[in-house]
Amino acid sequence: MRLKFLEHQILSKLIQIPIIVVLYPPMSFESVRAFFSAHAPEIEIIETAESSSTVALAAEAHGVEPGQIAKTICLRVGDETMLVVASGTARLDNRKFKDAFGGKGRMLGPEEVLEVTSHPVGGVCPFGLPAPIPVYCDVSLRRFDEVVPAAGSTHSAVRIATERLAELTSAKWVDVCQ
User: Does residue 9 lie in a domain region?
Assistant: First the structure.
């Protein structure tokens, strides 16, 4: 998180007041918009007034069951960072994950996620990334013909065919959830 000092004049004195300002990279939502414009112009980004930053909120905002929300989890195994996209009701299974990737996955913190993906937690998705990151789709998504992943902000998402999601992100299918 970056600190920014704002100047404020109080009673003819200039003082600096430290405040915490979360500066989301401008490319987050716009990079997702550009991604879909270039690779899948038929897919519309849905913006909502209400937050969809959790699976429950997203399901309510988009009128789908929680399992149909495609949550994107940013993990690191050793030096490799990856994204795992799974059903909203699925949970990572440590044994399956270790078997698939050869080590224990560590979830990245909010600041690391923002740095790696340019998306804030609650808006993380495998689209419009600043640099290539391996993407894996968990088989839990295959229960649904269409899923709803975030689209770079806590107030945006897309409806996308499950197989199209994997295709657009060059994802490999894995079984790492329960």
Answer: no
Classified as helix, coil or strand, 55 is helix
Tokens describing residue 158 = 């897309």
With beta carbons less than 8 A apart as the criterion, state whether 115 and 169 touch: no
DSSP 8-state secondary structure symbol assigned to residue 64: S
Structural domains counted in the chain: 1
- Give me the CATH number covering residue 70: 3.90.960.10
Q: Where are the beta strands (DSSP E) in the chain?
A: 3-10, 13-20, 45-47, 69-77, 80-87, 106-107, 135-138, 146-149, 156-158, 160-161, 172-174
Assign 27 a pLDDT band (cuts: 50, 70, 90).
low
